[in-house]
Amino acid sequence: MEGTGTDRWLIETERLGKEYRLGDVPLLALCDVSVRIAPGEFVAVMGASGSGKSTFMNLLGCLDSPSAGLCRLAGRDVSHLDADELAGVRNRLVGFVFQGFNLLPRTPAVENVELPLVYAGVPARERRSRALARLAEVGLADRAWHQPSQLSGGQQQRVAIARALVNDPLLILADEPTGALDSRTSVEVMALFQAFNARGITVVLVTHESDIAAFARRTLRFRDGRLIDDRPVAAPRVAAEVLAGWRPAEVAA
Ligand SMILES: Nc1ncnc2c1ncn2[C@@H]1O[C@H](COP(=O)(O)OP(=O)(O)O)[C@@H](O)[C@H]1O
Ligand SMILES: [Mg+2]
After folding, report:
1. For atom 7 of ligand 1, which residue has the closest CA?
2. Residue 197: inside a domain, yes or no?
3. 27 CB under 6 A from ligand 1?
4. Which candidate in 63, 73, 95, 210 could, as Cys together with 169 as Cys, close a disulfide (CB 3.0–4.6 Å)?
């Protein structure tokens, strides 16, 4: 019956497909993807470049609409919404983190973190206090007034994570969030995702690195736009433990 998945699944896709058109040539970027993700899961999306990972994430995050099948987010079919409706669902439910951080340049960290609250119409004073609290949670309380260019890559990504969380989303979608970071900084970012996941936020993270996917509790693998594998991670790595055991030689590397 309609709605049976409403509470049980945060994300539910049925034969989801996406076709891009390059002139007259159709390109099937995603085909027949049926998957269910429960609230609180931590899922890594893997696959070679061009396999459809970002296309899949963009559909889950209401950045784009499918050309076939359907996608439900928190029980609502988001497959056929117009641009304004998509933006509304996105702003309420989803926080995004990207490989390139996507921060506004020449803009202090705290103002970057406030942005989703500006769109949501939250009053200025409350925006500021919520943004500062999120920056503190990612360990950047003392960097609130730094501009992106004054921060390291890892710090910039933490600002982006604070921004993704400032609206209290149900879902974090992260597309290659460690792709531009060194290995230790990558594990620090994974520690943040694991901490927020432990508080109940669902995390779906694209990576082509298996040692990063090993921090998740489930992996989906795409090839040529199709979901070819879906399995639990037997013993997920614990980022906080990896950091605690990090040897100085590895820090220097
Ligand atoms: N906006 C677009 N227009 C046309 N083709 C696209 C577009 N975005 C992605 N593609 C194509 O769709 C396929 C899947 O791309 P993508 O989802 O970005 O893969 P991945 O993130 O796994 O590298 C690729 O062949 C890519 O070239
Ligand atoms: Mg991609």
Report:
1. 20
2. yes
3. yes
4. 95
For residue 106, being part of any structural domain is answered with yes
Confirm whether pTM is higher than 0.90. yes
Say how many domains are in the chain: 1
- If you take atom 18 of ligand 1, which residue's CA is the nearest one? 54
Sign of the alpha-carbon dihedral angle for 77, 33, 26, 20? positive
List Cβ neighbours of 76 (8 Å cut-off, separation of 6 or more): 89
Rg (CA), the chain: 18
Distance CA 60, CA 45 (A): 12
Query: Is the CB–ligand 1 distance for residue 17 below 6 Å?
Result: no
Do the domain assignments include residue 1?
no
d(CA 33, CA 102): 28
Measured in residues, the chain has a length of 253
Q: What is the pLDDT along the chain (253 residues), one digit of tens a residue?
A: 444 445 699 999 999 999 999 889 999 999 999 999 999 999 999 999 999 999 999 999 999 999 999 999 999 999 999 999 999 999 999 999 999 999 999 999 999 999 999 988 999 999 999 999 999 999 999 999 999 999 999 999 999 999 999 999 999 999 999 999 999 999 999 999 999 999 999 999 999 999 999 999 999 999 999 999 999 999 999 999 999 998 876 555 5
Structural domain includes residue 186? yes
CATH number at residue 195: 3.40.50.300
Q: Check pocket membership of 219 for ligand 1, CB cut-off 6 A.
A: no
Q: Range of 151's domain?
A: 6-250
Pick from 16, 54, 55 the residue to mutate for probing ligand 1's pocket: most ligand atoms within 8 Å of its CB: 55
55 pocket-lining for ligand 1 (C-beta < 6 Å): yes
